[in-house]
Write a structure and sequence with these properties.
Elements (H helix, E strand, L loop, with lengths): L1 E5 L20 E2 L2 E2 H10 L5 E6 L3 H8 L8 E6 L6 H8 L1 H4 L4 E5 L2 E3 L3 H11 L3 E7 L7 E6 L2 E8 L5 H5 L9 E9 L15 H11 L4 E5 L4 E3 L3 H10 L6 E2 L5 E2 L4 E3 L1 E3 L4 E2 L4 E7 L4 E2 L4 E9 H5 L12 E3 L2 E5 L2
Parallel strand pairs: 1-4, 1-6, 4-5, 8-12, 14-17, 15-18, 16-19, 17-19, 18-20, 19-21
Antiparallel strand pairs: 2-3, 6-11, 7-13, 8-11, 9-10, 21-23, 22-23
């Protein structure tokens, strides 16, 4: 069974961390995020990988190479001139996927969900596809996936926090919604349901119409850890949660002055922090110098020249400002 990692996204909500790389290629605790995904999938015996590319494609190729560092072989598919979406990506790779069932994993997740168990569920289901789901205990803003008897029955609205009235209502059971993890196993005949050469996403353009036609999509509800790094605040929170109690993560060639105070922060490579600087809950990107006496809290900081040289700031990006030689994005 082949595995495909989706790695073509722009990462607009992670801007400016994604100015010079695509979202799955951003560093996460010293390793490209997509490298964690490759290691995770390879652990379950997958040897043949496909990785789709669009935005800053070289950043992913640099992170993964030919796959030999992970004990796998990687074929790359390039989406140009336009990105094709999560279903269009499969259409673009159909010649590599048409022979047997295949695994799809989103390239922006960190997880230890048991993929082998999900594959077994799919093999025994006879379904067009098997979606790996997880209880959305925190009721984060992910689409609700409704199920019955091991089958997906409907895609609902986005989950939302309970109101105080709903919490106080003891007459009705509070049901934890299920969410899609971005991990799924598909039969090759799903390719027949994807329009050729156009942008399309798997849930609205393939799975929803398939359910309406009576196709079976199996639901594998998994246990285990799962993190999705799609925004800068999530990136920081998840990084801090996985630092095993350490206060600061430092990449290569980082220097922190002895009089500086740095707490709950992530530094990429070649960062310099001068005297009397105070940093709390910050992400400091490659090559940034924090001048003496500066104080930043809840912020992501990149070199200002990178923002000056980019064509436009994405609409979904958090707003930032230039301060000296740095571009600062408040995370509040």
């Amino acid at each position: 069974m082949k595995a495909m990692i989706l790695a073509a996204g722009f990462g607009t909500r992670l801007f400016p961390l994604t100015i010079d790389r695509t979202k799955p290629a951003i560093p996460f605790l010293g390793k490209p995020l997509v490298g964690y995904v490759a290691e995770y999938v390879a652990k379950y015996g997958f040897k043949d990988f496909i990785v789709n590319l669009h935005h800053q494609p070289d950043s992913v190729i640099e992170a993964l190479g030919d796959g030999s560092d992970f004990g796998v072989h990687i074929d790359y598919t390039l989406e140009e001139p336009n990105i094709l979406g999560t279903a269009g990506a499969l259409d673009n790779a159909r010649d590599l996927l048409c022979d047997s069932p295949f695994l799809i994993v989103n390239g922006k997740i960190i997880s230890d969900i048991d993929i082998a168990a999900a594959v077994e569920t799919h093999k025994s289901s006879g379904a067009l596809a098997t979606m790996v789901l997880k209880p959305n205990v925190k009721r984060e803003k992910f689409t609700i996936v409704e199920t019955d008897g091991g089958r997906v029955t409907r895609f609902g609205e986005m989950a939302r926090p309970l109101t105080e009235e709903e919490i106080r209502d003891t007459e009705h059971e509070i049901v934890t919604p299920l969410m899609f993890t971005g991990i799924h196993i598909l039969e090759p005949r799903v390719l027949d349901l994807i329009d050729r050469g156009v942008y399309s996403d798997i849930v609205p353009h393939v799975y929803r119409p398939a359910l309406e036609r009576g196709e079976k999509i199996a639901a594998h509800v998994a246990e285990g850890n799962w993190y999705e790094l799609s925004t800068i605040p999530r990136y920081l929170d998840i990084s801090l949660a996985m630092m095993n109690g350490d206060d600061v993560f430092k990449g290569a060639n980082c220097e922190i002055a002895s009089t500086a105070s740095v707490r709950d922060s992530v530094m990429w490579d070649d960062v310099s922090v001068a005297d009397d600087v105070i940093l709390y809950r910050t992400i400091i990107a490659d090559g940034v110098t924090i001048p003496a006496g500066e104080h930043f809290e809840n912020a992501a900081i990149v070199r200002a020249e990178m923002v000056r040289n980019c064509e436009e700031i994405p609409e979904k990006a958090l707003k930032g400002y230039i301060q000296g030689e740095n571009y600062v994005v408040p995370l509040n």
